Amino acid sequence: xxDSILEGDTRRMLDDTGxxxxxxxxxxxxxxxxxxxxxxxxxGAWLGLxxxxxxDASAAALVLGEADAGPYVLAAAWPNSQSPAGGLLGAAExxxxxxxxxxxxxxxxxxxxxxxxxxxxxxxxxxxxxxVKRNDAAFTDIMRKIQWACGxxxxx
Length: 156
Prior knowledge:
This protein is α+β, with helices and mostly antiparallel strands. It has a single domain (3-155), classed as Beta-Lactamase, CATH 3.30.450. The chain is 37% helix and 31% strand. The strands form two sheets. Strands 4-3-7-6-5 form a five-stranded antiparallel sheet, sandwiched between helices. Strand 1 (3-7) and strand 2 (10-14) form a beta hairpin. The radius of gyration is 15 Å and the shape is globular. The termini are far apart. 36% of the residues are buried.
């Protein structure tokens, strides 16, 4: 039987050998996503699911605020819901300021942070920033996945 370990807002499921079972993690995230009763629960599960879809994602932050006015404040972070990894909030701020996607160097040499604004009907509502292992060839694919996923924030 798997044990659940809570680290911030992220569940890691360990099997009897102590190895992380990602299928159990994915199932737990999808269950939380479908059963979300509040906006905070929804976006927390949503951000975890987004990161599981991106190769080598190590951290993420979502900032939201009043349309076109802000302030855009931390709404969710992964894997630690209380403390986003270094550089994420700065990249999200840059994406909201430019109203376009950005890529900046992450805190480690092999890390980049990719951030996309959340634009709904031309109005700016925030941004999502994800730290991934540097892979310039995958940048466009990662940016598209972030932009597609941001549609769920609009739906909710």
